[in-house]
Write a structure and sequence with these properties.
disordered N terminus; nine-stranded mixed β-sheet; 461 residues; 2 domains
């Protein structure tokens, strides 16, 4: 959604305490700068999946702007890192990380400026990381079939997370990593959490556009690339010919993947609240909140309920897609994140997952679909150390996590028929499953015929 906020000036630069500087990786800084002085360009650092920090400057005593070179983009990008109070005081302590994803045509400064993020997080014991999302819907773009930059999903999940973990004192596990975002960022939050449930333990959509099957919202999604000087449908391609790609990124269609994530959903109702009446831009968001955000959020809520997936669903009796509402939603989100971090939640023993990708990895399982299969969903159900159920078409390869004794025979039942496989030197096995003839028609296209077959795989100990 394209929002119009009142202008918010950049924060005043403060002196930087020595303790705060010591709290950052020594790879980035050699000495603390004097007050109001930008840090020098970062020295060479080890690239993480090709991404490298090439510069940084303090914005306030807690907030730092990084400049990052990444193959996911054609130019360097900015990322803001907001350190928690106390980060520089105990340099032996590691911290959870919370990723904030901005709404349409906004950038990495939004959380700090428009929402007064430092005040909102004054007692929140987590590093906050805010990359710039522009109007990219936090996705790798289709680009008329050519792919390539911009690649927001790849940057966030494969480059930014390990880059932050390498350069700041973070708790580097899923149990201490959460994501939240507003509007387009709410969509990105639940899309990324659903596609990568092994990366995030908790996710919160703040008035997010979370169901692209809702036609008014889908139309906004279609034209949003124009804001970044690209042609419409650059993100997932024309829906008539790429429906499965749209659905493979839609939180409602991949809601099953959220079963292992602590989910929060927030929405207003399109009626100005008391905290919005002094904002002259707030009324412009009333129709957006009531006509797109509310029905899309209700749709995802209903889907989660129908699948028995626990979540928090909060509907306000006010709210017009404004900074005041987003600040309220953030303030309600963070205490729950704190509770989830405190639980130190282990990776799930059992999970469900669905994706139309030709190959994917999740919770250390690797799945490769038949290369002759047209684009369609592959569904895993009840995947665990004892087996799984898989639905799809064609010859599918499943490589397990290292759950078996190394270099030992393993008895596998495929639909009750036994076979013996040998685990490798890490304790993994690869099972090849025949799911029938590979479908030749892309799923969801007009007149398409799919040949889905289900197989039950069991591991005998």
């Amino acid at each position: 959604m394209h929002l119009h906020f009142r202008s918010v000036h950049g924060a005043r630069v403060h002196g930087i305490g020595v303790a705060a500087v010591l709290g950052l990786s020594a790879a980035l800084f050699s000495a603390p700068p004097s007050a109001a002085e930008d840090l020098p360009p970062a020295p060479a650092t080890t690239a993480v999946s090709g991404a490298t920090i090439i510069g940084q400057k303090w914005l306030t005593e807690r907030s730092l702007e990084l400049t990052v070179n990444s193959p996911s983009f054609t130019a360097p990008v900015q990322v803001e890192v907001m350190l928690p109070n106390g980060y520089g005081e105990d340099t032996s302590r590691n911290w959870p990380v919370t990723y904030y994803l901005n709404g349409t045509h906004h950038d990495q400064t939004l959380f700090r400026t428009a929402y007064n993020g430092e005040a909102l997080t004054s007692s929140y014991a987590s590093i906050i990381v805010s990359p710039s999302g522009n109007a990219g819907y936090w996705s790798d773009w289709f680009n008329n079939g050519a792919g390539g930059p911009p690649m927001y999903e790849t940057f966030t999940t494969q480059q930014l997370i390990p880059l932050i973990d390498a350069n700041f004192r973070t708790l580097k596990d899923r149990a201490h990593r959460a994501v939240l975002g507003d509007s387009m960022g709410g969509y990105g939050t639940l899309m990324l959490a659903a596609r990568h449930p092994d990366l995030f333990v908790a996710a919160s959509s703040l008035s997010g556009a979370v169901d692209t099957n809702w036609l008014p919202g889908a139309a906004v999604h279609t034209v949003s690339p124009v804001l970044d000087t690209a042609i419409p449908d650059s993100i997932y391609g024309p829906r008539a010919t790429n429906e499965v790609n749209w659905r493979g990124h839609n939180p409602v269609d991949i809601a099953a993947n959220l079963r292992t994530v602590d989910v929060q959903l927030y929405t207003g109702n399109g009626v100005l609240g008391a905290s919005e009446v002094t904002d002259p831009t707030a009324p412009s968001g009333c129709a957006l909140e009531s006509g797109i955000i509310l029905p899309e959020t209700q749709s995802l809520h209903n889907t989660l309920v129908s699948q028995g997936i626990p979540h928090k669903y909060a509907t306000y009796d006010w709210g017009c897609h404004s900074p005041a509402m987003f600040k309220q939603e953030i303030a309600e989100t963070l205490p729950r994140f704190t509770e989830v971090f405190a639980k130190n939640t282990p990776a799930p023993a059992t999970f469900d997952y669905r994706s139309p990708a030709p190959a994917f990895n999740v919770f250390d399982w690797s799945i490769t679909a038949d290369p002759d299969r047209a684009a369609e969903f592959l569904d895993l159900r009840s995947a665990s150390n004892t087996g799984l159920t898989i639905t799809g078409s064609g010859t599918t390869r499943i490589t397990t996590p290292p759950i078996f004794r190394r270099n030992k025979p393993v008895t596998v039942l495929v639909n009750g028929a036994p076979t013996t496989l040998s685990s490798d030197s890490t304790g993994r096995i690869t099972v090849t499953v025949d799911l029938g003839q590979p479908s030749q028609d892309q799923q969801y296209t007009l007149g398409a015929t799919t040949n889905l077959r289900t197989s039950v795989i069991s591991f005998l100990r």
